[in-house]
Design brief:
The protein is 76% helix and 0% strand. With 358 residues, it is an all-alpha fold.
């Protein structure tokens, strides 16, 4: 961020925050309209459009001015927002029910792998490529190649629709907004997402710099969650108790008086944030009468509602810091309390698997 600011002579932190905020705004807007795009063009073409938007990130290192930079960041974020929604109808169409938890888990860990590479190795990558501009260019070119490879993929028929002829042919945004499950599902995730964004936005400014450990053990937690979800079919227990451990370890990270205890809390936190994610994202796939249309709308609302919630909370977070003359204690306490949505939400979600083991 500091290098981007220097290249465009941006000296205002408020202006810099808009560079990151453009991506967050794109995620709110993009995830909400993703289902509409899939209905209009089909899932395969919609996924191609999302890939195309992601490659627009290539303009970021070569933006002639601040406005073009914001636009490129917004469009790239829009593509990412579309993509995380489209993973779900694609998984529903292309994989059998017993395969879906593994694929959902791999999709969930992909983001963490990318983030982990950047947090741990970005300086080395820049040294290898000759600078941040070339690094971002290479990332975009790789995205471009993968976009073209996607055109070779052939999607299967909607297995869920074929298998269940009683399922509704369409599932609109109106249907989704009336469905209590969608609100419980999104709000369960919202507290976790709020912390996750705060971890990179505000925690370093509060002097808490263990984000690398959260990400690294998040990868391990996701892989462990994939293995667990294949063996233990019940979804709610792992969500519920991981959520409770997550809040306790988050309190340790936020308020521990010693660095080693903060690091230990970050390790536990990273693992238990992502350990239940495979179970969480598998629940809609396992609901009765599920179709591509419905799962697309569910995840469209899931991400847009939770990102909107997180955006409001982040504003309140900053406001509390200002009110308390730079003291982060009240804001960190708020994030810890809100993280309980993961634990509390588990009592309002349906259990899709009555059996405990295969």
């Amino acid at each position: 961020m500091s290098q981007i600011m220097a290249s465009l002579n941006v000296d205002s932190l408020a202006s810099a925050s808009f560079i990151s905020g453009a991506v967050t705004l794109a995620k709110i807007v993009g995830t909400f309209i993703a289902a509409w795009l899939a209905v209009k063009y089909g899932v395969k073409m919609a996924f191609f459009i999302s890939s195309l938007l992601i490659t627009i990130g290539i303009f970021t290192p070569y933006s002639p001015n601040y406005e073009v930079l914001l636009l490129s960041r917004f469009l790239m974020g829009l593509g990412g927002a579309f993509m995380i929604v489209y993973f779900n109808p694609i998984v529903l169409q292309c994989f059998k029910p017993h395969e879906r938890p593994v694929i959902n888990g791999l999709n969930a860990v992909a983001f963490n792998v990318g983030t982990g590479v950047i947090l741990w190795f970005m300086d080395d990558i820049n040294a290898l490529t000759g600078g941040w501009k070339m690094s971002l260019t290479i990332f975009s070119l790789v995205s471009l190649v993968l976009m073209l490879v996607w055109l070779l993929v052939r999607l299967h028929d909607d297995q869920a629709q074929v298998a269940n002829q009683q399922a509704p042919a369409t599932y609109s945004y109106t249907d989704g907004l009336k469905d209590k499950f969608n609100w419980a599902y999104a709000l369960t995730y919202s507290g976790l997402l709020t912390f996750y964004i705060c971890l990179f936005t505000f925690y370093p400014k509060a002097g808490i710099t263990q984000s690398k450990w959260v990400i690294s053990f998040g990868i391990i937690g996701t892989l462990a969650g994939i293995a667990y979800s294949k063996k233990i079919l019940q979804r709610l227990p792992v969500i519920r108790w991981s959520g409770l451990i997550m809040t306790l370890s988050l309190a340790g990270l936020s308020f521990s008086p010693t660095p080693w205890l903060q690091t230990a809390s970050a390790i536990v936190l990273g693992f238990f944030i992502f350990f239940p994610i495979t179970a969480l994202v598998s629940i809609p796939h396992e609901l009765k009468n599920m179709t591509s249309a419905r799962v697309t709308v569910i995840f469209s609302l899931f991400y847009s509602i939770s990102y909107l919630f997180a955006t409001v909370v982040l504003w309140v977070f900053g406001k509390l810091v200002d009110i308390n003359q730079g003291d982060y204690s009240a804001s960190l306490a708020m994030v810890c309390v809100l993280s309980l949505t993961f634990f509390i939400g588990s009592f309002y979600l349906p259990e899709t698997q009555p059996k405990t083991e295969k």
